[in-house]
UniProtKB/TrEMBL annotation:
<dbReference type="InterPro" id="IPR048469">
    <property type="entry name" value="YchJ-like_M"/>
</dbReference>
<dbReference type="InterPro" id="IPR032710">
    <property type="entry name" value="NTF2-like_dom_sf"/>
</dbReference>
<dbReference type="Pfam" id="PF17775">
    <property type="entry name" value="YchJ_M-like"/>
</dbReference>
<protein>
    <submittedName>
        <fullName>SEC-C motif-containing protein</fullName>
    </submittedName>
</protein>
<feature type="domain" description="YchJ-like middle NTF2-like">
    <location>
        <begin position="37"/>
        <end position="129"/>
    </location>
</feature>
Length: 132
């Protein structure tokens, strides 16, 4: 979905079944802070699906940002077609998930990650992830 297309009355990219504007849109478009690591993880998936690289950088823990390129994030987000998010487990500061997508050759792929988050200065941030 192109960023300039209206998300009004659209179901959110993450798996809650809620409208985007009442779910991840609160964080991606209305500048609210995600209230928990799980909500941040869901909103980061929606940011990939909606090609919002700025949000992905902003919600990465500051000491980790140097390892990420906004250009590379945007390229990866745009060349894949995001299908669905499956939350496998979560704690206060971790989320285990699978993100399903079609790659640039339209082949189904699954990205598995066990992510770690940190709460600092009133906001949650993505720190890092273990992949399989």
């Amino acid at each position: 979905m192109e960023k300039n297309q209206s998300m009004e009355n659209k179901i959110c990219f993450c798996d809650t079944g809620l409208l985007f504007e009442n779910c991840c849109g609160l964080y991606l478009e209305k500048n609210q802070k995600a209230p928990a690591a799980l909500a941040l993880m869901r909103s980061r998936y929606s940011a990939y699906a909606s090609h919002n690289a700025d949000y992905l950088i902003e919600t990465t823990y500051i000491s980790e940002r140097k390892y990420y390129s906004k250009t590379e994030i945007l390229r990866w987000a745009q060349e894949n077609k995001w299908q669905k998010l499956e939350i496998l487990s979560f704690t206060e500061n971790t989320v285990e998930f699978k993100a399903y997508f079609l790659d640039s050759d339209q082949k189904p792929q699954i990205h598995y990650e066990f992510s770690t988050f940190k709460f600092e200065n009133g906001a949650w941030f993505y720190v890092d992830g273990k992949f399989e």
